[in-house]
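We now fix the convention by which a protein and its fold are recorded. These numbers are not coordinates but entries in a learned vocabulary of local backbone shapes. A record is reproduced here so that you can trace the correspondence yourselves:
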Amino acid sequence: MKNFAKIGFVGVGAMGEPMAASLRRAGFPVTACAHRNRAPLERLVAGGAVEAANPAAVAAASDVVITCLPDAPQVEEALFGARGAAVHAQSDRGTVGDGLTFIDMSTISPIASRAFATRLRAAGHRFVDAPVSGGAVRASDGTLTIMAGAEDVDFERIEPILRAMGTPFHVGPVGLGETVKLVNQLIISSVMLANIEALTFAKAAGADLDAVRKVIVTATGSNYLLENWLPKTWFAGTFEGGFAMDLLRKDLAAALDAARSMLVPLPVAALAYQLYTLQSAEGDGALDYSAVAKFYERIAPKQTGDV
């Protein structure tokens, strides 16, 4: 079995930078290129990574190429564009196993992931979709949850790489990594709305929101967002940082697209998408998705009183 040693990284942004840094801490040689901003790349180089000019140069220096980009069009460009990693990667005989292994850790549609896998396999390469959950904080300390869609042999080969960045789960063949990640996004989008809607009801009745929260986190309505997320955002009076609303909208759109292809109805997700879109249209797309609370605050009564 080939022992992968040289890692290429394309997309060293808010998530990719700490993920690449985790690989360096684990002893992997890392070659990376800038996507939009040079500052993260320069910090990685200061930590021992090697700079490459573009994804093609990253692939030329690597056994495994990781992409961590905003959406499928950016992954497409990084892999198959004029200076794309897959276009310039060399395969000895043109059969699967002779080329590189590509790991896409972006959150995109599973339809797109499967299409990328087909094209890469035809060129003699391997492909794994391995999106993550945990945000920049858990990316920084190497404790991400990683959902990998891969053939058994491919997962076995790359598991040590994934373990350098968090806890990997092999959830099935290519495409199921993205599917499981989108399951997570469907849940958090609706749970956030449920929290804010219920707390808006409590506030309109004159209840103290922090007191309500302290009760509910001990009851059956307890959830991670209520216990840990909202106290740092809505309750603290800030929506800066966190997980951008427009990124969640992108993920919901990917889930709805995949569901349409399977004739699976997602009415709650469709409503959630529209509510987040309403708030994004107010200029809040770059804020944490809990900023959807502004929508409820606009339509709720200003006075408090008995229900």
Q: What stands out?
A: Residues 7-173 form a domain with the Rossmann fold fold (CATH 3.40.50.720). The two ends are 67 Å apart (CA to CA). Residues 176-204 form the longest helix (29 residues).
